[in-house]
Amino acid sequence: MILDDLVAATTARIQREKKLISLATLQQQVAEVHPVNKPSFIASLDDHFGIIAEVKKASPSKGLIAKDFPFLGIAREYTKAGVDAISVLTEPDYFKGDLEFMHEIAQVTSKAVLRKDFVIDPYMIYQAKIHGASLVLLIVAILSDQQLHDYYQLATELGLEVLVECHDESEIKRALAVQPKLIGVNNRDLRDFTVDIHHSEQLREKIPTHIKVLAESGITQAAQLKELKQHGLNGVLIGETFMRAPDRQAIIQQYKEAVL
């Protein structure tokens, strides 16, 4: 399965990175990090339908998405367009991401920044904090209940907001055990990468209304946002559609107007 390969690659990567910079060193660096003065993404969902725009060069399902990849320019376009947060892929093997992309983007945007990666070690949460993230992604499918609890608690203690990603009802039940403020329902099954755009609408009913819920993956039309909002979703995370758009600011404006 693709997900197993991603986890294996991430495990190997973190083992290599720990040899270069120890966990103890990261923990010391975190203590010296200045507070990130960025607006809370979760709080922004109280008064409007939110949009997280993703900076993504490639993916396992689509291959190379952006041959030309001026990641800072893309982040500036997203910022100018008024998105609520920017997601940055930091997974290098399958998504051609880099932690440095996020580090630099965090310095040029006023928006909250999400580290989009396959977090399987506390080390990665410390990295996220040091490199300017405001949010971190925790994927229920690749974590045990204990890991999910511990990583959520660590991220919160470090002042990071957490997006807990689920794909089915059993994962939602596990996610609810950590009392999350924000859940993302991935319309793409990470086991085989098939997409069902209505998946997040159906699973919204299984999540208490006080918890904010995002739809992730497969969103290609502004009208879909209106439908998602009608089904009680609070926002979306969109990557490929925005990355491939000839005019990113224009398409984001269309999407924002659809949910006014």
Architecture overview:
It catalyses: 1-(2-carboxyphenylamino)-1-deoxy-D-ribulose 5-phosphate + H(+) = (1S,2R)-1-C-(indol-3-yl)glycerol 3-phosphate + CO2 + H2O. This is Indole-3-glycerol phosphate synthase. Residues 3-253 form the Indole-3-glycerol phosphate synthase domain. Belongs to the TrpC family. This protein is α/β, with parallel strands linked by helices and 260 residues long. The chain has one domain: Aldolase class I (TIM Barrel, Alpha-Beta Barrel), CATH 3.20.20.70. The chain is built from 13 helices and 10 strands. It has helices at 2-20, 23-31, 41-44, 71-81, 92-95, 99-108, 122-130, 145-157, 169-176, 199-204, 222-230, 240-244, 248-258, and strands at residues 50-55, 58-59, 63-64, 85-89, 112-116, 135-139, 161-166, 182-186, 212-216, 235-238. Helix 4 runs parallel beside helix 13 (248-258). The protein starts with a helix and ends with a helix. The model has no long low-confidence stretch (mean pLDDT 95).
Write the layout of secondary structure elements.
Blueprint: H1 2-20, H2 23-31, H3 41-44, E1 50-55, E2 58-59, E3 63-64, H4 71-81, E4 85-89, H5 92-95, H6 99-108, E5 112-116, H7 122-130, E6 135-139, H8 145-157, E7 161-166, H9 169-176, E8 182-186, H10 199-204, E9 212-216, H11 222-230, E10 235-238, H12 240-244, H13 248-258
Parallel strand pairs: 1-4, 1-10, 4-5, 5-6, 6-7, 7-8, 8-9, 9-10
Antiparallel strand pairs: 2-3
Family: Belongs to the TrpC family.
Keywords: Amino-acid biosynthesis, Aromatic amino acid biosynthesis, Decarboxylase, Lyase, Tryptophan biosynthesis
Enzyme class: lyase
